[in-house]
Design brief:
heterodimer, A: 285 residues, alpha/beta, six-stranded mixed beta sheet, four-stranded antiparallel beta sheet, 10 helices, B: 278 residues, mainly alpha, 80% helix
C-alpha cells in the first residue's frame, strides 16, 4: 500500500449473496486503484457498476470479500482513517427537526472536533458551503440543493484531508450544481483530496484532475482527464504559433486561402462520449 | 474513553430529541396518563382487594402495557429510521464505532422511556397520596386501620419499571440488529415480550419434581435462562402499599437480574450489528 496515496485499493473484490439459494453476485471484481493526494478524482460508471459499493467498502461500511484498502496510509475503517475523511452520501437525509447549524455541530462532535473549537469549525464549514444564512432554519424546510450543501458542510466540518462525495449534484439544479463545483474547487485550493462520484460528466470533466471509469465491477480506464480525453491521432490548430518550419508552411498554405493559424493543440472528445464508448452496450444493449 | 462517551452521549441526545417529538410518544403518554387518572373512578370495582391496591394495580398494569408498546415500537422505529433514511451511512462513516452508535440509540430510547415511566409514576403518586389522605381521615372517623402509602416504594417501583422497559428495549435492539425489516422486528419483539411474561412458567416447571424427559428439562432450563422473567418486576403494589412485606435483598436481586439481561442483550446486539452490511 502506498502512503503517498490518499486512497490505495489493491485487488478489491466484493461478492453479495442474493436470494434464498445464496447465489453469488460479484459487485466489485479485483479492483486496484491509487488515488493521489491533493487532487480531485472522479469515479464514474453506470448504475450498478460497483462505484457505491467500492465507496462503502473504502469507508468501512461493508466488508470486502478480499483485497486491501488504505486511506492516507491507515487501514480503512479504522478511527485514524475516518478522522481524516469526510463523506457526503448520495441523496443525503438528515434529521428534519434539527437546524442546519445543529446538524453540523452534531457531526463536528461525532468527528472529534474539540468543544472549544466547534463553533469556529461549524461557521467555517457553513460559510464554505454557502449555508450561513439558512443555518438557523430546520432541515425539513431545505430544498434539495440546500440539503446537498448542508451535507457538504457536515462532511468537511472536522477539516478532513480526504472528502468523498457520492453524487453531490444529484437532483440539484444547474445553479446549485455550479455552486457545488465552486466548493470543490475551493477545497482543492486548500490541498484536500476529493473523490467525486457523479453522473454529470460535464461537471466531472471540469473539476476533476483524474478519472476512473468502472463497468460491471471492473476498472476499465484510469488516468489524468487531459490524457484520457486527448485524441492524439489528430490535431486542431487554434493559435498563431507552431514549430517554426511547420508554422511557416502552414501559414503559407493557409494564407493562400486567406486564413490565419491561431493555435495548434490536441483535439478533445467529451468525457460523455468517452464514457458512452466504454460502457454503452455492455449494460443497456 | 472520554471521546467514546462524548460520541455516545451525542447519539443518545439526538435519539432522545427525535423520539420525544414523535406523536406516537405523546399519544401513548396521554393514553397512559388517562388510564392512571381513570383508575380512581374505577376504585369501586376492586374485586375484593383493598381500594388502593386495585387503583395501584390498574395503573401499574397500564404503565407496563403501554410502556412495553412504546419500548417495542419506538426502539425498532428509531433504529430502522437511521438505516432506511441512510442517516446511519453518514454517521458511521465518522470515527464512531457501531457499538457507540447502538449504545447511543439505546440510551436515547431508554431516556424517553424514563420520561414516560417517571411522569406516570409522579401522576400515580399524586393520586395515591391524595386518596390515602382521604382514607386516613375516614379511618380515623370509623376507627379502622389507616392505609399506608410509601413514596420511596413508589420511587423504587418506578426505577424497576424503567429497568424492565430497558430490558425490553435492549431485547428489541438485539432483534433489530439482525432483522431486515421493521415489521419483522416488531413481531419478533412482541413475541419475546410475551415469552418474558410467561417465563415464570418454565421456571416453575423446572423447579417442580417431574418425570419429564431430559430434552424437555433441557429446553425448560434454556428457556428459564435465556428469556428474562419480566413478571419478577411486578412488585409495585407491595413496594408502594406494604413496603415492609418485601426485603431489600429481593428488590436488589430483581435489579441485578434486570441489569444482567440488559447488558447481555446489548452485547449480543453489538456483536450482530458489527457484521451487518449497511
Amino acid at each position: 500500500m502506498s502512503t503517498s496515496s490518499a486512497i490505495s485499493v489493491q485487488g478489491l473484490t466484493k461478492d453479495f449473496r442474493v436470494g434464498l439459494r445464496g447465489v453469488k453476485l460479484r459487485a466489485v471484481d479485483n479492483l486496484s486503484l491509487e488515488i493521489p493526494r491533493g487532487q480531485v478524482f472522479g469515479l464514474l460508471g453506470p448504475n450498478g457498476c460497483g462505484k457505491s459499493t467500492t465507496l462503502k467498502i473504502v469507508l468501512g461500511l461493508i466488508p470486502a470479500t478480499s483485497g486491501a484498502i488504505s486511506i492516507l496510509g491507515f487501514p480503512s475503517a479504522t478511527s485514524e482513517a475516518r478522522q481524516r475523511t469526510g463523506f457526503l452520501p448520495e441523496a443525503p437525509y438528515f434529521h428534519k427537526f434539527l437546524t442546519g447549524r445543529e446538524l453540523v455541530q452534531y457531526c463536528a462532535r461525532l468527528s472529534g472536533v474539540p468543544a472549544e473549537k466547534v463553533n469556529e469549525a461549524v461557521e467555517a464549514s457553513l460559510e464554505l458551503a454557502a449555508m450561513t444564512e439558512a443555518a438557523s432554519r430546520p432541515i425539513g424546510t431545505y430544498s434539495k440543493g440546500m440539503l446537498q450543501r448542508i451535507g457538504l458542510a457536515q462532511a468537511i466540518v472536522h477539516d478532513p484531508e480526504l472528502v468523498i462525495l457520492d453524487e453531490p449534484t444529484a437532483g440539484v439544479d444547474p445553479v446549485g450544481s455550479a455552486a457545488i463545483g465552486r466548493m470543490i474547487n475551493a477545497m482543492r485550493a486548500k490541498g484536500k483530496t476529493i473523490v467525486l462520484c457523479s453522473h454529470l460528466l460535464g461537471q466531472v470533466e471540469q473539476v476533476c484532475d483524474r478519472v476512473a471509469i468502472m463497468d460491471r465491477g471492473r476498472l476499465v480506464l484510469e488516468g489524468r482527464v487531459d490524457e484520457v480525453l486527448a485524441q492524439r491521432d489528430r490535431h486542431v490548430i487554434t493559435v498563431a504559433d507552431l514549430t517554426p518550419q511547420a508554422r511557416q508552411a502552414a501559414e503559407a498554405a493557409l494564407a493562400a486561402h486567406g486564413a490565419t493559424v491561431t493555435s495548434i493543440t490536441h483535439p478533445r472528445r467529451s468525457l460523455e462520449d468517452l464514457f458512452r464508448e466504454l460502457v454503452t452496450g455492455s449494460r443497456d444493449a | 474513553m472520554n471521546a467514546r462517551l462524548n460520541r455516545t452521549s451525542w447519539i443518545a441526545r439526538i435519539t432522545f430529541l427525535e423520539a420525544i417529538r414523535q406523536r406516537f410518544f405523546a399519544f401513548l403518554l396521554v393514553l397512559s396518563a388517562a388510564m392512571v387518572v381513570s383508575s380512581v373512578s374505577l376504585r369501586f370495582m376492586d374485586f375484593g382487594h383493598s381500594e388502593l391496591k386495585f387503583v395501584a394495580d390498574f395503573a401499574f398494569g397500564g404503565m407496563f402495557l403501554f410502556g412495553s408498546v412504546l419500548a417495542l415500537v419506538m426502539t425498532a422505529q428509531l433504529f430502522f429510521a437511521e438505516i432506511e433514511n441512510r442517516t446511519a451511512l453518514t454517521l458511521l462513516a465518522k470515527p464512531l464505532s457501531r457499538t457507540e452508535f447502538l449504545l447511543g440509540k439505546f440510551l436515547g430510547t431508554w431516556a424517553v422511556l424514563g420520561v414516560f415511566v417517571f411522569s406516570l409514576a409522579f401522576l400515580q403518586g399524586v393520586i395515591l397520596w391524595s386518596r390515602t389522605q382521604e382514607l386516613i381521615v375516614l379511618a380515623a372517623e370509623t376507627g379502622r386501620v389507616a392505609p399506608d402509602f410509601s413514596v420511596s416504594g413508589l420511587a423504587s417501583f418506578a426505577v424497576l419499571q424503567w429497568l424492565r422497559l430497558g430490558v425490553v428495549a435492549a431485547m428489541v435492539l438485539m432483534v433489530s440488529a439482525v432483522a431486515r425489516t421493521f415489521l419483522f422486528t416488531v413481531i419478533v419483539g412482541a413475541m419475546a415480550i410475551v415469552a418474558g411474561q410467561l417465563q415464570w412458567l418454565a421456571q416453575e416447571a423446572l423447579l417442580k419434581p417431574s418425570d419429564a424427559s431430559m430434552v424437555t428439562k433441557t429446553l425448560l432450563w434454556i428457556s428459564s435462562r435465556v428469556i428474562p422473567n419480566l413478571q419478577q418486576f411486578n412488585i409495585g403494589d407491595t413496594l408502594v402499599l406494604d413496603p415492609t412485606a418485601i426485603s431489600g435483598t429481593a428488590v436488589w436481586s430483581v435489579v441485578l437480574s434486570g441489569l444482567f439481561y440488559l447488558v447481555a442483550f446489548l452485547a449480543l446486539a453489538s456483536l450482530a450489528f458489527r457484521r451487518r452490511e449497511i
